[in-house]
Each structure stands twice: as structure tokens, then as C-alpha cells.
Specification:
Shape: elongated
Mean pLDDT: 89
Distance between the termini: 76 Å
Number of strands: 0
Order of helices and strands: HHH
Number of domains: 2
Oligomer: single chain
Largest sheet: none
Helix content: over 70%
Structural class: mainly alpha
């Protein structure tokens, strides 16, 4: 009985080991394929002018400032009413 349990445990660990090894191999292959496919996009983003990136950053900051200002005004209005 003990021998059969040991064999079953070793078989189970072997199956898990093989599965994890195959999973790692598939992830590496996918990574290399995606690296080749997206190389042009990465180069395009790296060569984008800083002014475009700065404009996007400034727009996001101004929206955040507007949202914070509106939240503060709403809080103050609610506090004075109630």
C-alpha cells in the first residue's frame, strides 16, 4: 500500500513538473513573438516628439485639477447647507 502511494505521488509530481515546464516554454515563445510584432510600435513611441507627450500630460493634469476643484466646491456647499 505504501509503495503504491509513493508511485502515485511521484507520478503526480512528474505530471505537474512537465506541465509547468511546457507552460514556461510557451510563455517564452509568446514573448519572443510579441517582441517581434511590437518592435515597430515601441520604436514609434520612443521617437514621438516630447511636445505631444507633454500636451497629453498637461491635458490630464488640467482635468484632474478641475475634478478636484469641483469636489472641493461640492463639499463646501454641502457643509454650509447641512
Amino acid at each position: 500500500m505504501l509503495g503504491a502511494g509513493t508511485v502515485l505521488a511521484l507520478l503526480g509530481m512528474s505530471v505537474v513538473f512537465v506541465f509547468l515546464t511546457l507552460l514556461i516554454a510557451v510563455i517564452h515563445v509568446c514573448s519572443r513573438i510579441l517582441a517581434r510584432e511590437t518592435a515597430g510600435e515601441v520604436a514609434a513611441l520612443a521617437s514621438a516628439p516630447q511636445t505631444v507627450q507633454q500636451a497629453g500630460l498637461e491635458a490630464r493634469r488640467s482635468r484632474q485639477i478641475a475634478a478636484i476643484t469641483a469636489a472641493i466646491a461640492a463639499h463646501r456647499a454641502a457643509r454650509t447647507r447641512g
